[in-house]
Amino acid sequence: MTTYTRSVTASFGNTTITQNVNTTDTVEVTVSMPGNVTISTISASNCSRTPASMSSGSTCTVTFSGTGSYSVLFMGSSGGKEPVFYRATLNGNVSSASVTAPTASSVTFDNPASADTTATVNLSATGSGGTLQYACEAGDTTPDNWQSGSTFTIARGSSGTVYARARRSSTTNSNTVNASRPGFLTGDTAVSATSSTIAVGATSASTTLSSATAGETYAVRVNNGSSNLATRTGNGAISFTSSLPSSGNTSTYEIFVRRPTSTGGDGTTYTATNDTFTVEMTSQDTTPNSFTLQNVTNAGLSTVYQSVAQQVTGITGTVTVSVSGEGSPQVRIGSGSWTSGPTTITNNYYINARLTSSASNSTAHTATVTVGTYSTTFVVTTVAASGGSSGGTSGGSGDYGIEVYDTDGTTTVLSPSTRYVNFMQGPQTITVPGNSTVLLQQDMTGLTTDNCDLAFTDFGSFVFSVARVTTGAVSSQGFELTNPGAGSFVAKPYILRF
Amino acid sequence: MAYGVQIFSANGNIQVDSSTSNSGLIVIDAAASSQTVSAVLDKELVFAKPVATGAQITMGWSGSGTGGGYDPAVNTTFTFRNISGTAINCSYIKVKVANELTASTSGYGLQVYNDDGDLAFDSGLYNGDEGFGITDFVKGGDFNGYYNFIDSDIDKYCLMNLTYAMGAGFGYRGYVYKNTTNTSAPMTSGKGIYYLGYLMIFNQSYSFPNFGCILVGEGGAV
C-alpha cells in the first residue's frame, strides 16, 4: 500500500502524467492552473477522487478498487466571452495489490461468573494486505460473522465446539481454530451443615447451613443420594420429613448445591459438596412401667366388662398396643374408640380393656394386653351357678366356705383360712361396785374360750376378774366382772367372737 | 338355723352368722407406716405392728388427753410409742363394725344382714385396704404381764386396745417385738411377740395382766 505524490500544471490543450498503481495504493496529485483559475471539474474513471473540484494548487486524493486503466481529468476555465479551457490528466494502470492471509493460533475464553463468556481469536501471524477481520461462532465450522474486533460473546453450554478464523479479504481466510464451548459453573462447595438429635417419633429433622453462597440453592440428600429431601437458598435452616433415621439409629446426609444461570450455572443441576451432617433418633423405650388391669369376678354371663383404666408411663415415642384372648377383647386408648387392635399409645395415656364374659358359670375369659414389650391380663370370671359349685375357686382349702375379694380382685378379705371377728355386744359402760360382781349377759351357746372373749375400751381398776357363766338360764349366762376392792370402778367391755 | 346364712372357717369357727345379732368387722383403713392413727374405739379396733425391727421393739399407744386418756365414744388420735414414750412408726389396720357402716350400693358381691336387720357383712365395703384375719388370741387374764410369749411371727398385728405407753414413769402395757433368736431371759422363747404390762407405784413396778383378750392377726390376703 503506497501513496504516490504527484504534481501537474494544466495547459490549454492537456498536460498528462502517468502513475501506475495497485489497488491498495493512493495517489495524491497537486494541480496548478494557469492564471490560478479554479479547477471546476475533476472527473475520474475506474478510480475515486476527492474532492470533485478545488482551487488551483490544491491536492486531490485518488484511490482505487478495480484493476485496469484509470484516468482523472482536471479541467478549469478562464471564463469570459471567449474562455480558455485548461486541462491536466492523471492516468495509468491499476493492478491487483498483494494480500497475505493471517494465521489463527487459538480461540480462548475468560471464565466469569456469568451466563456468557468472552471468546478471543488469537493470531500467530497477522498477514498483510486487505483488511483484517475475525469470525467466531459456536457450532459453525465456517464462522462468518466477520468483524474487525477479535472478541466475541459466547453463551455457556453443556456441550459443543466454538470455531474461529480471520481473513484479509474474502479470498484470504486464515485457518480455523476451535475450542470446547465453555461449560456451566457448579455451585460453591464451601458450606457447613449442623448435625442434630431428634426424639423418638419425631416426624422431621433440620440442619442449619452456614458459609453458603448467596443466590445458590442447597439441597439435603441422603449421603451420595440422588433425591432432594428439601432445599433452600443461601444460609439458614432446612427441614425435611423423609428418610429419617429409625429409633436408636443415625443417618448421614449430604448437602448438594445448584448454581443459578445468572452466575454461570445451568440453574437445574445439583452437585455434591461432600459436606455431610448426621441426624440421630434417640432410642425408644417400649417397656412401660408395670401396671395391672383390675380383674372382675362373679361376673354376669355373656356381658361386656371393662377394666379400670390404667395410665401407661415409662415409654417414649409411639408404642404398639395389641390385645388377644377370649371374649372378643378390645382396648381403648384414652378417650378413643374401642378396637381389637393393634393400635398405638404414647406416654401418660390411659389404657383400658374390655371383653365379653363367658356364657357359662364359673368360667374365666382372659384378655392379654401387650404394650410394647410388656404384657398384662384382664380376667373376667363369671359367677358360680346358683345352688353352689364345688371347687373351681382358687385359694380354697376344701369344698366349702366363701372367699371374698378386695377391690383389686385378687386379695381375699374373707376366706376359710382365718378367723373373722364379730362384735356381739358393746361396748357398754358397766359400773362394778366394791366387793361386787356384775353380769354382762350373753347367750353363751356355742361360745367358748376358744372363740369368744371380752375386750375393753376402758376400765377403772387394776384388780378385778372375769368369769364365764355358760350354764343355767340364758338370762343368767354371760361374763361376770368381779371387783374385789372396796371402791367401785367403771369398765367398757365388748364381746367379740372370732 | 331355719333361714339365713352361716359361713364357717376351715376350723369350724363362725365367720358370718345371719341368725345372730353379730356384726362383722370390715377393714376400712390401713397404713404401712404411721406414727398416729385416728379411731373411735366404741366402733373400731386397731391392730398394729412396729415398722422397725430389732432386739426389743416395744409398742403401745397413747391418746391425746391428759395422761393419755381419751373418750372411746369419740374420734381420737392415738400416737404409737415405745416404752420410753417416744413416738414410733407402725403399720396398722383399722376395722369397723359393719352395722356402723352404710351398706354398699355396688349392686354385686355379698351382703349379709343379721337377726336384728343390721349389716353383718358386706363385701362391697372393702375399699382396697385388703383383709384382716385372726390367727392367734390370748384369753383375758391369761398373761401376768411379764414378757409373755404370744407368737413367733413378728409380721403379725396385735390389738391395740388398752395398751398404753406414756413413758417410763407411767408404766407400760403393750407388746415387745423381738427379732433375734437368742433365748436369754426374760424373752426366753426367742424371736417373736411378747406381752409386757406393769404399773409404777411409788417407784415400784407391778405386773399388769391382760384383762381383755389379745387378738393377733395377719393383714393382706387372709
Could you give the topology of this structure?
The complex is a heterodimer of chains A (498) and B (222).
Chain A: E1 3-9, E2 11-12, E3 15-18, E4 21-22, E5 26-32, E6 39-45, E7 48-50, E8 58-63, E9 68-77, E10 85-95, E11 103-109, E12 116-125, E13 133-138, E14 151-155, E15 161-167, E16 177-180, E17 192-193, E18 196-198, E19 205-210, E20 217-222, E21 230-233, E22 236-240, E23 250-258, E24 270-281, E25 296-299, E26 304-306, E27 310-311, E28 319-325, E29 330-333, E30 343-345, E31 350-356, E32 364-371, E33 374-382, E34 404-405, E35 412-414, E36 422-425, E37 430-432, E38 436-441, E39 452-459, E40 465-469, E41 478-483, E42 489-497
Parallel strand pairs in A: 1-5, 3-10, 4-10, 18-24, 25-33
Antiparallel strand pairs in A: 2-10, 5-8, 6-9, 7-8, 9-10, 11-12, 12-14, 13-15, 15-16, 17-19, 19-22, 20-21, 20-23, 23-24, 26-31, 27-31, 28-30, 28-32, 29-31, 32-33, 34-35, 36-42, 37-42, 38-41, 39-42, 40-41
Chain B: E1 6-8, E2 14-17, E3 23-34, E4 36-39, E5 44-50, E6 57-62, E7 76-81, E8 90-97, E9 111-113, E10 119-122, E11 131-138, E12 148-151, E13 157-159, E14 164-165, E15 172-178, E16 192-201, E17 204-207, E18 214-220
Antiparallel strand pairs in B: 1-2, 3-8, 4-7, 5-8, 5-13, 6-7, 6-15, 9-10, 11-18, 12-16, 13-18, 14-15, 15-16, 16-17
Polypeptide structure, described:
The complex is a heterodimer of chains A (about 500) and B (about 220). Chain A has about 500 residues and is mostly beta strands. Chain A folds into five domains: about 5-95, Immunoglobulin-like (Sandwich), CATH 2.60.40.2020; about 105-180, Immunoglobulin-like (Sandwich), CATH 2.60.40; about 190-280, Immunoglobulin-like (Sandwich); about 285-385, Sandwich (Immunoglobulin-like), CATH 2.60.40; about 420-498. Chain A contains no helices and 42 strands. In chain A, the strands form eleven sheets. In chain A, strands 2, 3, 4, 6, 9 and 10 form a six-stranded mixed β-sheet that branches. The radius of gyration of chain A is 62 Å and the shape is rod-shaped. Chain B is an all-beta fold and about 220 residues long. Chain B has no helices and 18 strands. Chain B has strands at about 5-10, 15, 25-35, 35-40, 45-50, 55-60, 75-80, 90-95, 110-115, 120, 130-140, 150, 155-160, 165, 170-180, 190-200, 205, 215-220. In chain B, the strands form four sheets. In chain B, strands 4, 6, 7, 12, 14, 15, 16 and 17 form an eight-stranded antiparallel β-sheet that branches. In chain B, a hairpin with a 2-residue loop joins strand 16 (about 190-200) and strand 17. Chain B is globular, with a radius of gyration of 18 Å. Strand 36 (about 420-425) of chain A pairs antiparallel with strand 3 (about 25-35) of chain B.
